[in-house]
Write a structure and sequence with these properties.
- The protein has about 270 residues and is α/β, with parallel strands linked by helices.
- It has a single domain, classed as P-loop containing nucleotide triphosphate hydrolases (Rossmann fold, 3-Layer(aba) Sandwich).
- It contains 13 helices and five strands.
Amino acid sequence: MVVDKLIFNSSMPRSGSELIQVILSQNPKIYASATSPLLEYKFAARSQHSLPEVKAQDSNLMERAFLSMCQGMAIGYYSTITDRPIIIDKNRGWSHYLEWVNLWNPKPKIICMVRYLRGIMCSMEKIYRKNKHKINGPDSPHTMQNMTVEERVNHWLNSQPVGLALRRTLDLFQRGVSDNICFVRYEDLCNQPHTVMKHIYEYIEEEYFQHSFDTITKTVHEDDSHHGPYGSHKIKEKLSRYKEGEWEDVLNKNISQKVVESNIWYYDTFYG
């Protein structure tokens, strides 16, 4: 199998990254991955640069060899997974390392799903309420159950995964590389799927494929239990229109407004 094109999905949490992957996978030419370890594999290899076997050789030569290995690693990784020529690898970290990716995959194409922050917080809170009896780690019951809804929202906005993703997204604009990324609003995908998909195909420079939005079936499966409670990748079998104000029943108007006011740059950038 020859990988003709490697594309990346590096999206905001709870913003439809899995949904867009499943839809794109309907195209027989495209393999859209589950959450991928490819980026971590590359960093694991990079960590070995301190070995004497590497340091003893010409540093420029070793750097070029490493970049070549990064390219070959992607091809080798997917050669046993799929025979489809177009790969869309999903990992939230890709956009943060865009300049480095460009060294071994020139002019990378990166799709980034975004969503109303109030919608993201609503999704997080719903998952918390459903799973609070079994959440471990920083969101464990003894740290979260004594918080108010507003305190939990503030916690998520300033920690992983949402807070980190927010800072990295802002950093893209401050670094001046945001024009290289295809930002897709989750709400637009729900309400205008054909228009959004045509835009994505124009961006990745591929012939448009007629997708079905009434029969959405996952073909790539992963065990969500390894991603924690907020890593659920369940999707509905039929795309439904976005419900305006979905967050009000969960967050209330006061909290929702504070989410907007504390991240006005995000709303000005994507919803202004």
